[in-house]
Amino acid sequence: MSAASVDAIRNCLEGAIPSTLATCSPDGVPNVTYVSQVEYVDHQHVALSFQFFSKTRENILLHPFATAYVTDGVTGASYRLSLQFLHTQTEGWLFERMKAKLAGIASHSGLAGVFRLLGSDVYRVLAIERVPGGSLPAPAPRRNLLSALRAASEALCAIGELSSLLDQTLQSLDAQFGIAHSMLLMFDAAQQRLYTVATHGYAESGVGFEIGLGEGVIGVAAQHRVPIRIAHMTNEYSYARAVRDQAIDAGFSTDAEVPFVGLAQAHSQMAVPILAADALVGVLYVESPEQQRFSYDDEDALVTLARQVGLAIRGLQCVETAVAEDAPRTQPVALQTQGVAAVRHFAENDSVFIDNDYIIKGVAGAILWRLLGQHAENGRTEFSNRELRLDAALRLPDIDDNLEARLILLSRRLDERCDFLAIEKTGRGRFRLKVGRRLELLASVPR
Fold it and tell me: Could you give the CA distance from residue 426 to residue 118 in angstroms, rounded to a whole number?
């Protein structure tokens, strides 16, 4: 093929077999070297990793033409790419994407301390030529991704409630795409963090785990609004299990965290931003114990699915807001005495503990504390999303506050950590607080 069509050879850019790059000095002296990455940018461009100030770098700056030799790691088919150097990127989505992949390659090859990305060199592909020689037939794909995407989309279209949408998304990844381990995180714009609202395929739920923008595969994907895919396990982009390293007042800690429940040996990872228009809604994260489990085609399919999920989330949030009504005032409910539960709230980060057990923090923690306060004051059990949005004491960031997702997070944390407290949805924009024990609300405690 003489015309540049990088889409047709993306499998050669997975890095399973090292690529080579040939350059030439202005006086005609050739130089050939291995290159760690040849990254797909679009159908006319690729990016090569710039790691060392070498002869290759010197040549390309003086004579901006090169030839790359790439090989399909499965079939063995090889191609020559005629390239023209355009520019180097040292920041932004492309650089971060290649940096994450390079970390996986380095860890896999035992060179984590040697490989360091200095820049992403962007090239225009002038021509692609098949190298003569034998090759194996391409194996049949494990799944028809277009069919999988269609089935997943149809399942999501039938859902009219946010909690079910979150769960169905991850169930569809397993049933339709064969991806057994996944999680969905929502974005907190005010705190610039992501929090986990749904997981699938793990022994523990991990709901409530948080991570900041730029941290790990998930945080980088969120920060740059671009999918990040790693084919080999890397320590640099792994997630340490959070622990409480301080005890305050009989074991309480205002820095309590929910641990990350992902695979201990995740040899393949992919994080896909969930967007609605240009706004970040959250991140879809998948992982596998297999190396090179996720391909460019998997990435395309999950990016498309994530876009649909983002629009669906935004649409359901708008419906909840539009139809929300004030909840009816209820009479105090008499409780069966089963002892008293001590509830403590820390004002600094709105973390809530029940009988020394960490439950929740942040906006969801503030909501729980507010609900329990109103219940203690007048026995209320019926509430509405609308009144929470209008409650100045909660300091919700703005109308785009993901309130429904925070209530889902709170409900699931209570289900996991507390057998006498629950939040039960009673209609569009309305819910019921179920309290099964007497509560002792301790004063909000600043650090």
Answer: 55
